[in-house]
């Protein structure tokens, strides 16, 4: 079983601790290691999940965001041609990968390139939840105060 060391991400991100804790335990929830994937930080609030999907056409892949999860699945279309493999090393079995997303993280796009599926994610905190500075006023600044 392979495990990923996500400790560098803990030091450089704020608000994603829950995301990385859940990703850290993804191997423990019954999922297989197929297909292999990478998670990378591409900017301050941007991330990319890259999944190796060699052998799958774009119409055989499905990406859904639901219930705070990103669900990526693939299923090969029925192959009617009769072939005899001497060695079969390219796995094209059906798969489903689930990634738990942190709050305010959403997928912004996906593209398939050279057998890799790239899914871009961005963290967008609403203005109402962002910290804001509150000015401190002195006692003399309060309206209705009369100086003696």
Describe the structure.
The protein is mainly beta. It has a single domain, classed as Immunoglobulin-like. The chain is built from 2 helices and 7 strands. The longest helix is centred in the N-terminal third of the chain and has 8 residues. This is Hsp20 family protein. Keywords: Stress response. InterPro entries: A-crystallin/Hsp20_dom, ACD_IbpA/B, HSP20-like_chaperone. It holds the Pfam family HSP20.
Characteristic terms for this protein:
148 residues; mainly beta; Immunoglobulin-like; four-stranded antiparallel β-sheet; three-stranded antiparallel β-sheet; 33% strand; elongated
Short description:
The chain is mainly beta and 148 residues long.
Please state the overall shape, judged from the principal axes of the Cα atoms: elongated
Class by helix and strand content? mainly beta
Overall helicity: under 10%
> Which ranges are low-confidence, i.e. pLDDT below 50, for 5 or more consecutive residues?
none
Q: Can you tell me the number of structural domains? A: 1
Radius of gyration, whole Å: 23 Å
The CATH class, by name, is: Mainly Beta
Got a strand count? 7
Multimeric state: single chain
Strand percent estimate? 25-35%
Assign the CATH topology.
Answer: Immunoglobulin-like
Strand order of the largest sheet: 1-2-7-6
**CATH 2nd-level architecture:** Sandwich
Organism: Pontivivens ytuae
InterPro entries: A-crystallin/Hsp20_dom, ACD_IbpA/B, HSP20-like_chaperone
Family: Belongs to the small heat shock protein (HSP20) family.
Protein name: Hsp20 family protein
